Amino acid sequence: MANQPNRPASAIKMPHPVRITPTGRNCPRELALTDSARTQFEQVRSLQMELGEELVAPLDTQQRRQLLDLLSRLNQGVLTDEAGDEE
Questions:
Q1: DSSP code for 2
Q2: Contacts of 37 (CB under 8 A, 6+ apart)
Q3: Annotated domain spans of the chain
Q4: What would the pLDDT profile of 9-60 be if each residue is shown by its tens digit?
Q5: Spatial distance between the Cα atoms of 28 and 57, rounded to a whole number of angstroms
Q6: Residues 7, 41: Cα–Cα separation, whole Å
Q7: Where are the beta strands (DSSP E) in 1-87?
Q8: What whole-number distance in Å separates Cα of residue 5 and Cα of residue 13?
Q9: How far apart are CA 24 and CA 43, in angstroms?
Q10: What would you report as the CA-atom Rg of the chain, rounded to the nearest whole angstrom?
Q11: Are 18 and 27 in contact (CB under 8 A)?
Q12: CB neighbour burial string for 2-34, b if at least 16 within 10 angstroms, e if fewer
């Protein structure tokens, strides 16, 4: 698939329908990554995992579970708030 105008070479919008977010903006449902973008994504993801491990290294297993539970609760609250927002 050729690059579309005004799109970076590493990400190409797929021709799927878009959904309208609560803020009224169009969002593509899927993006296709080029080989170059996929490599970059994998490098960033690997670095993200390493940094995450370093961040929680001082915590024992129970503390990590508690942190994950609390962050999940916060995330659900944010997602619930976003879904209910009307602008």
A1: P
A2: 10, 11
A3: 1-56, 59-87
A4: 566 555 555 555 566 666 666 667 788 888 998 999 999 999 999 999 999 9
A5: 37
A6: 17
A7: 11-13, 18-20, 26-28, 31-33
A8: 11
A9: 33
A10: 18
A11: yes
A12: eeeeeeeebbbeeeeeeeeeeeeeeeeeeeeee
